[in-house]
Design goal:
Blueprint: E1 3-10, H1 15-30, H2 34-54, E2 81-88, E3 92-99, H3 113-119, H4 146-153, E4 156-161, E5 168-175
Antiparallel strand pairs: 1-2, 2-3, 3-5, 4-5
Length: about 190
């Protein structure tokens, strides 16, 4: 058995804890280990907070799309919303947060940890890999740690842009651990 869900949320601060609680409830019901649930919910909160803060088209008018069908339009009519999708199966949880904002800057090459491993000196553990996209902010910075946190909390992370439509996509996954008697345990 697996669980899949997708939420279309308004770019409002109140949507962040809503998405987090939805994920935590799903994982608790499925029987996921609480430590894994916490890590994924924190990473999801950071991704959602980025979508709320940076995920809208920069427009002169402050209009918000009322029609959820407008999500697929490249026009920026969906600038007031973002999408969270989560998939839990017997082995891992994969989460994607997509918005309709300007996306990540193209000036940086996005590389997976495996590509970094091939082109740079070898690392013995995941914690030794440099961040895929995020630069660590100065210690005195008041923000800018979200992408770094996601990279530390998840097993695999990808930061990219929605092809042809604009907008950022943050996707990450983590291998699941289960409580005894969990509903979705690997057979």
């Amino acid at each position: 058995m697996s669980i899949w869900w997708s939420l279309h949320l308004r770019r409002e601060a109140a949507s962040v804890p809503l998405a987090r609680r939805f994920l935590l409830g799903t994982m608790e019901s499925a029987g996921v280990d609480p430590d894994i649930s916490f890590d994924l919910s924190l990473a999801l909160s950071e991704a959602c907070a980025n979508a709320v803060e940076h995920g809208g088209a920069h427009k002169d008018q402050g209009e918000v799309a009322e029609n959820w069908e407008s999500w697929e339009e490249p026009s920026g009519a969906a600038c007031g919303q973002y999408r969270v999708t989560a998939y839990l199966d017997g082995e891992k949880c994969r989460i994607e947060v997509a918005d309709s904002g300007p996306g990540f800057p193209a000036r940086r090459a996005l590389r997976t940890a495996a590509q970094q491993h091939e082109t740079e000196q070898p690392y013995e553990s995941k914690q030794q890999y440099p961040p895929q996209y995020a630069d660590y902010p100065p210690l005195t910075a008041e923000d800018g740690r979200g992408l770094c946190l996601i990279e530390e909390l998840a097993d695999h992370v990808h930061f990219g842009n929605r092809p042809g439509r604009g907008g950022a996509v943050v996707s990450f996954d983590k291998v699941l651990k289960w409580r005894e008697g969990a509903l979705l345990m690997v057979s």
